[in-house]
Amino acid sequence: MTIRFERVSKFFGDVAALDELDLSVSDGELLVLVGPSGCGKSTALRVLAGLEQPTSGRVLVSDRDITSLPPHRRDVAMVFQDLALYPHMTSRQNIGFGPRIRREPADEVRRRTEEVARQLGLDGLLDRYPDQLSGGQQQRVALARAMVRAPQAYLMDEPLSDLDVQLRLRARTEIVELHRSIGATTIYVTHDQAEAMTMGDRIAVLASGRLQQVGTPAQVYDEPANRFVAGFLGSPPMNLVPGGGVLGGEPDTVVGVRPEDISIAADRFPADGFRAEVALVESLGSETVLSVRCEDGTRLAVRTGPRSPYRANATIALSVDPGRRHIFDRDSGMRR
Ligand SMILES: Nc1ncnc2c1ncn2[C@@H]1O[C@H](COP(=O)(O)OP(=O)(O)OP(=O)(O)O)[C@@H](O)[C@H]1O
Ligand SMILES: [Mg+2]
Predict the structure, then answer these.
(1) What is the pLDDT of residues 141-177, one digit of tens each?
(2) Out of 3.40.50.880, 3.40.1160.10, 2.40.50.100, 2.40.50.140, which CATH number does the structure's domain 238-329 have?
(3) Which ligand is nearest to the CA of 206?
(4) Rounded to an integer, what distance in angstroms lies between the CA atom of residue 207 and that of residue 237?
(5) How much is the pTM?
(6) Which of 65, 212, 213, 276 has the fewest Cβ atoms surrounding its Cβ within 10 A?
(7) Every domain range in the chain assigned CATH 2.40.50.140
(8) How far is residue 40's CA from residue 218's CA, in Å, rounded to a whole number?
């Protein structure tokens, strides 16, 4: 099914949690909604699930206006940010709760519960209560509860936030693979830009309730529509420097360059180069991030390979391919 937000606004008092959101999700797509805390991600999902009534605008599912349809009549399953598992029920009962109250046949519910539990690595944990599970296991039970419904669409609100890094990477891959095999339209919410980059068919970046940009991860990373998107995706983030400084550009602009797009000259001083002093060396194993101070005081992050030979206080020569620069209007912040 397709999903469309049409100029959806949601005010809480005078806070605009969503400000004229226009967003379309195609059938079978996995769209990641990403943005900083408080930007309106959960509100967008809650409006879609029918848990929140928009102040204005419409929500369409497969071209049908569902804005005033009650939640139980919408064929979407939501995995909430705050789990909401029933504490007095085992994993098995939690997972099978929805199908049971819809009076589906008991052996069919059992079969599907066990199948989903296997897919999520919960086999041995079905008879435990939530307080006998780790945070990550609880999160997987919550995910299983949504999956067992086989709805038309999944709405996932930071379902992996309680997992440790290893499990999180695994669960991420599982969700993507699961999505591929089920093919249900999915909106996945996260504030983690790396998660957005790796999971989404497309990414929608939200800030202060406003949609900043939608595109494939490559489009949004390589051609950020504005300064906010430029600074939000990428780790370390894009260097953003006032125009006219070490990175060139007109004075009424802000010039951006990603840490991996700055070259360190090995021997000869490059024609368009500039000098900088290494202030800090952060070795991350597979890469090294140098924090450097340029002649004019500008600070830049420079990404380089593993086992970097550069040490603090060394002076190095840097250069930037002009084609790798991103130019933004100083006042509007829009890409030029
Ligand atoms: N019920 C409510 N009453 C008043 N304000 C609310 C309510 N729900 C959300 N807000 C406000 O709306 C804005 C968006 O909230 P929302 O929960 O959608 O953000 P979010 O992007 O999901 O953030 P997070 O990443 O922290 O979960 C915030 O400023 C929040 O304080
Ligand atoms: Mg939220």
Answers:
(1) 988 888 888 788 999 998 887 777 887 887 788 788 8
(2) 2.40.50.140
(3) 1
(4) 16
(5) 0.90
(6) 65
(7) 238-329
(8) 24
